[in-house]
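The records we work with from here on pair a chain with its fold. These numbers are not coordinates but entries in a learned vocabulary of local backbone shapes. To see the layout at work, look at the sequence and tokens printed below.
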Amino acid sequence: MNEQSENAADPRLEAGRLWALDSLSLTDARITPIAGDASFRRYFRIQDDYHSWMLMDAPPAQEGLTAFIDVNARLRAAGLHTPAIVHQDLSAGYLLLEDLGDDLYRDLIKPDTVDDIWPELFDALEEIAGSVDPLGLPSYDAGRLQQELDLLPDWYLARHKNRPLSPYEQQCWQQLCATLIDSARQQPVVFVHRDFHSCNLLRTQTNSPGIIDFQDALAGPLCYDFISLIWDRYISWPRPQVEHWMEQMRRRLAPGIESATWIQWCDWMGLQRNMKVVGIFARLFYRDSKLGYLEMIPRFYEYMLDTLARYSQFKEFHAVMQEPQCVP
């Protein structure tokens, strides 16, 4: 099937292509799909012989653009590198964006390169926490944290593993959730990207890193974006290395907080996020028919087990998650 036929079979793509060409005053351009995220948004690279742009297709019935535009402006106002908005059509659900390229940190971060790469990403984390305005963003409040945690028993255990919690285990679960939520709420409130990891960061020619997929930002716990980076989807780090990085970020973000308190904040925030991720990946598979996410669960499950084992408060739930019928 040629490009013209493909576009005819995809009315939104064809409408977006024509809008982009008109906005750029071009008569023709190449259009190439780019791997997207877990939402209904789609991305396409539009190129002529000299320039390149990104077309975001966000169907208005499923994906609004207001949050993306607002958060983009907040990050750029703080000097961070997010895609400049070249043209926009909010009613149709299209944005034409600066193309930040394909040089993902996912492909750059290795055991022998991480110590050279981390400083620029830690700089960005420090800038996000210290300079990006969180005022008016939705709050990462107790209700939202609990909703995210409940994805684990609802979608992973009950749906994927057919292993619902017993009444006693439900009590243990609620105690664990209350502990994690209280810890998160003790932290200073800052701008939270909410998905600050190597797939959403690009090395750019100037002002690296380029930052994408930020539209779900919230006002929330100080260490959240940091733990999103170190408990990575593609590579697991030795605990001594993780604690070394925790101490580096404590000195940058919370020098007045004792090291032991900061480590616990990071561990428990990481536990909340990793539980959420396991639940979300199961939900994406069963509810949204998005294949490929189940195979990513084991790494996050191991992160979860490792943290549960470190704290006696969580021993009952750790035992549940170690059962053969629960493990991926």
Remarks:
- Residues 259-286 form the longest helix (28 residues).
- The chain has two domains: 3-98, 105-321.
